[in-house]
Amino acid sequence: MTASLPSTTLVKPQWIKARAALTQTYYETADTVQKLNLHTVCQEAACPNIGECWSKKHATVMILGRICTRACRFCNVATGKPTPVDPMEPENTALLVKSLGLAHVVITSVDRDDLPDGGAEHFAQTIRAIRAQMPETTIEVLTPDFLNKNGALETVMAARPDVYNHNVETVARLYPHVRPKARYFHSLYQLKRAKMLDASVFTKSGFMVGLGEDAMEIRQLMNDLRSADVDFLTVGQYLQPTPKHYPVMAYLPPKAYTLIERAAHRKGFLHVSASPLTRSSYHAGDHFQRLKAAKQSHTCE
Question: Considering the domain 19-300 in this protein, what is its CATH number?
Fold first, then answer.
């Protein structure tokens, strides 16, 4: 039995509010996504940065449908019985990347625990389809844990993404409360295993703050990620999607993210993005270029 939700109500501070830049380009991006029968995590997870990103023709595609087989208490994505996998999704994703002219694209998915490989082959097909249409586009995949199914991660890594991302989301103690169907050390092992399978691929992970973690737990989480050879870290404020979801236990001020970022750099991460509105795919293309530059500098030293 999972623990009941804590009860708290906090007023959202001014610094956490994003501006929705609903430009003509925003609506054009939305129209393109709809015409290709695709889903985005920008919409499904109610990302606060959607206005800014779509106005720059940046969209994070969410493959394998829009219904998740899990019910993580922080996540706004719909849960239930998923629909059959759309065989045209990889090709349509490639067409979206081409239509938007993306130099860097992030591909994520819902959890598909109902599938024998958790959807790993569909990720691989999507990577290959994008490579065929846009060979110069760099590809970042943000995958679920595939229930630790044999061969799933190997299938994704064999398709050679440029960045392999898997979010730990929160500290170990809070997993039963926030991610009851996930396992903290499975996620760490998956990140470590990705680097072992292909050391040339950048690895990335992220977590939220404001869920009730303390400073010591954050430090331990960063240590664990570095032990898994993770290159790039993202840290952002948790925002409660609806009153039914896990409550926000604290809003960290901007200064706290600066301290986290400094500590993460000292621990050896090649690149760190930490701010109240940071999300895994937010400014991902720019961050990838900085990550490459940091890697090259690190190699030369």
Answer: 3.20.20.70
